[in-house]
Design goal:
Length: 97
């Protein structure tokens, strides 16, 4: 978790610096179905087989991704390859509108 950003503001982050590591956030990530699967049984819950996807799709469908539900972004390392990240490191995020 990265503090200091408003809810869903990660959609607009272009570059991030974490210690000596620089990341470029390159595209929105479409949501996979794993959150709908009960990890203990390997199957969706019979009472709500498509949750939380159904609820999130009411406010997280992305026009940029043809209406797909998005959550987070894919990133590539552009500097600091091989550096170990640690919990608690300061993160600088540059918004890119």
């Amino acid at each position: 978790m990265i503090g200091g950003l408003d809810a869903y503001e990660e959609d607009f982050v272009g570059d991030m610096q974490i210690g000596d590591v620089q990341l470029r956030l390159v595209k929105l990530c479409s949501r996979c179905p794993v959150p709908t699967i009960d990890q203990a049984t390997g199957a969706p819950h019979p009472d709500w087989p498509h949750e939380p996807t159904d609820t999130m799709s009411t406010y997280r469908a992305s026009e940029q991704m043809d209406g797909k539900l998005t959550f987070g972004k894919n990133a590539v390392v552009v500097g600091g390859e091989g550096v170990v990240l640690e919990v608690g490191q300061e993160v600088a995020a540059e918004l890119d509108f």
